[in-house]
Every structure is written in C-alpha cells, then in structure tokens.
Amino acid sequence: MYLALALFAATYVLMLVLPQKRAFVALISAALFVLLGILPINEIASVIDWNVLLMISGTMGIVSLFIDSGMPARMADIILDKMPDVKWTIIALSVFAGVISAFVDNVATVLMVAPVAMAIAKKFDINPVPMIISISMSSNLQGAATLVGDTTSIMLGGYAGMDFLDFFSFHGKPGLFWIVEIGALLTVFVLLWLFRKENMKTEAAEYTVVTDHLPTALLLGMIVLLILTSFFPDKPSYANGLICVSLFAVGLLVNIFRNHNFSELRKPFMDIDYTTILLLTGLFIVIGGITKDGVIDAIAALFLRVSGNNIFLIYTLIVWASVLFSAFIDNIPYVATMLPVVQGIAAAMGVEPYLLYFGLLIGATLGGNLTPIGASANITAIGILNQNGFKVKNSDFLRIGIPFSLTAVVSGYILLWVIWH
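^ that's the sequence the OP posted. Answer follows.
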C-alpha cells in the first residue's frame, strides 16, 4: 500500500508542477502501476470507464460540428438584438453561455460566446475583460447541471450509475440541475450589481447565417436518446457512450456524402480533446491500482477520523475542501480521485453516498471559479483576452470570481443539505 500511495502522491505533485504534461504524467504513472504489479495487467480494461471516454469523445465531436454550423453565433445575435442596453446584453450572454454549457463542453461554450462579447466591447468601446470573465464563470457553473454538461458530470454519472434524467429528479427528490439553476439565478443578481453602470443602448446586429441544421438536430437527438435510454434498466454499461459516438459518426458520414471529400473528417476529429481522454485513461488505471491496494480505504478512514464520523462535518469538509483544491488544480483528476473515496466514506458510515457525491461535484466544479487557473473555461477566456491585447490582472478576476463563486457554492451547499441529508 505504501508503494502505491507514494507513486500516487508523486503523480499528483507532477501534475501540479507540469500542468501541460498532465496526460503524459498520468499515463507514465499508470504504466508503473502495471509494471510494478500493483494492478495486474488483466484488470486494466475493467478499471477504465469506457462509457465515460466514449461520451466525452462523441459529445466533443458533435459540439465541433455544432459550432461550425453557425447556430450558436446566430442564437447569440438574436439575444443581442433583443436586449435594451449593454448591462442586460452582458447578463443575457452570460445566461446564454450557462444554458449552452449545460449541454456542451465549457471550453467549447466560451469559444462560441466570447467572440460575440468581444465584438460588443469593441463596438461600444468598453473593457471586455469583466464581460468575458462573467461568460466563462457562468459556463463553468452550469456544467454541473446535466449529465453531459462537463467531464466531471459525465464521470459522476458513470461512477454512480446515474442517467440523464437523474440530474433532474433522483430518488424522488430534486436533482442537481435545480440546485445548480438556483445558484445560477442568484449569480445574476451579482452580475447586475457588478455591471450596474453599463447602461449604453444596443442596436440590432446582422444575424449570422446558419450553414447546416444537422448538428443542431444531432445535439438535440443526443439529449433525447440519453433521456429515452434512461428508462431501460438493463442496458449495457456503455450505452450512453455508444449513443454519443454513433451520432457523431452520423454527422461525419453526412458531411462526407454531401461534399464528396474525406477531408471533412479532419477538423471534428482534431477538435476532440485527446489530452483529457488520455489523462482520464491514465487516472482510471492509477485509481484502480490504489483502490486495489487499499489506499482509497485508508483515505476514507482518515476523513472519518477527522470529522468524528459526523455526516454533516464530512459533507462540509468534502464541499469546502473541493472548493479550495479546485481553485488551484484541475477538477478532473481531483474528482476522479475523490469519487471512490466518497463511496468508501459512505460505505463505512452505512449511508447512501449521493449527498456526498453531489457535494463533491458542487464544490469541485463551482470552486474552479475562485481563481484564473481553477477551471479550463477560465483559462480559455483569459487566453482569448490575451490574444486580443487585454491583460487580465488577478484583481480583475477576483473582483468577479469571489462573489460569483461564493454565491453559487453557498446556495448549493445549503440546498443540498436541506434536500438530501
């Protein structure tokens, strides 16, 4: 167990020190776990969550087609046309980014909406920094609302055996969707206060032309099929992933037949985040190894000792520790590590794990908004601003990030306990 723990700790430290090499570090660590005999080679396939990997790949591919179709830009243009002034335009774009992000990857959402905000800022000669930061935060927040909204949500769904509808209603109680949406609603008031002086009138914009409606149909079809599949209790474990990949394949084949050109395959495949897929593959193997060697059980026992076996203290510790850690490290490896820990804690206490699962996701996802490096969406937004010649100070980010994050986390923390304890 000590060898597995030392290797696991070294893996985490290296991922923190070498953030651009996280996938490489995870894969090397996974190989060492196998070579050292911590995880038998014949158990590798069983510890990898293939459903999660397929869902992420298929969803990212469909999103690439969706963005290229021009539909997201047109939806943003319609919002701009309907808003009375800059303040409400910023609020509407942030809410729009959040709604899109509930069904589309957070980074992809920022890439869709941020250029619209940049154009508005240029037109009205205002600073785009707070606008685009607000969009990225709203995108990151709403990623926890549905099964397909974020990698961490997909991971939770796969680990806890949850389907699409379970995020709306689970075991007869309101699901994560409603808890996240209440937090999102409260953050609107935060944004209204922050942008209260932006009262310049807006004008109608020329609408973007949508070049292809098939990707929109594929995205909606994916959601519908995930919902329908949730009604079948004995479906294969990889059913959701197969749906996402199959619909992506349909989009690719239609493009090939339309254009008689196999080069249409290149861009959607290039837009898939292979780094995240490789990172998760390595982490699944590493976590399988430390679970087999008893490390996860030892960490769970430590949590129980620290909290005195009190469910409220354990819940509080998981939520706020997740906020703290996710403010400085990527939430994907953190959630991947903590899911089995949370399950072990719940098993040791003889309670259902769902309160702790949901607290983990709320803290880890929303906590990333506290700092510029806590979420991929925020890093992407800052990169867009830097490319356009705007430097983002820590103070610029924290002025929005602290009230936005604390509002969403505190409301989620209270609501989860009231509903699920």
